[in-house]
Amino acid sequence: MFWNKSTTTLVPVSVELLIDRLRDRGWRLTSQRRVVAEVLSGPNVHLTADEVLERAQVRLPEISRATVYNTLTELVAMGEIAEVSTDERAKRYDPNPDRTHQHLVCDRCGRIVDVNPGPDAVAALPAVERHGFVLRQAEVTYRGICPECAGRAGA
Ligand SMILES: [Zn+2]
Ligand SMILES: [Zn+2]
């Protein structure tokens, strides 16, 4: 949970960065893996693999595409990052995989913002609608137009 809902102004609480979680876990942090983890650390991070590569190369020019892609695959398998597909564009990587947050997506520019809609989305589905499934998680995507796109002339 990234936002303290008990206050009217949104205050980030207990943001545990991916890089810190990996360090705690004893994951072997080579300089290349560290750069990938750093690029993915923080709230509201939803990068495509190419964006991760681009940003990683700014910090470590010799890092290869294969290393970045392999590291992403490994982090997904470890459950430390989640793959998010909010539209037909490229898959994005979210370093906050516990799904206590949902996504707000701009239909024009594709920008993604983390939101916490409140009551547990899994609990919100009535028993009669579960068709005997044991529920694991829920993914809710809210769509609309972001303020920047709404404000753009002719948009
Ligand atoms: Zn937008
Ligand atoms: Zn997210």
Task: Walk me through what this model shows.
The chain is an alpha+beta fold. The protein has helices at about 20-25, 30-40, 50-60, 65-80, 145-150; strands at about 45-50, 80-85, 90-95, 100-105, 110-115, 140-145. A 3-stranded antiparallel beta sheet has the order 1-3-2. Strands 5-4-6 form a 3-stranded mixed beta sheet, with no helix packed on it. A hairpin with a 5-residue loop joins strand 4 and strand 5 (about 110-115). It is globular and about 55 Å long. The protein starts with 17 loop residues before the first helix and ends with a helix. Mean pLDDT is about 85; it is low at about 1-15. One zinc ion binds near residues 94 and 101.
Instruction: Report the radius of gyration as a whole number of Å.
Output: 17 Å
Succession of helices and strands: HHEHHEEEEEH
Structural class by SSE content: alpha+beta
- List the bound ligands: zinc ion
Number of helices: 5
Fraction in beta strands: 5-15%
Major sheet description: 3 strands, antiparallel
Range of helix content: 25-40%
Topology, element by element:
Blueprint: H1 18-25, H2 31-39, E1 47-48, H3 49-59, H4 65-78, E2 82-84, E3 92-94, E4 102-106, E5 112-115, E6 141-144, H5 147-151
Parallel strand pairs: 4-6
Antiparallel strand pairs: 1-3, 2-3, 4-5
Helix pairs in contact: 2-3, 3-4
The structure holds zinc ion (2 copies).
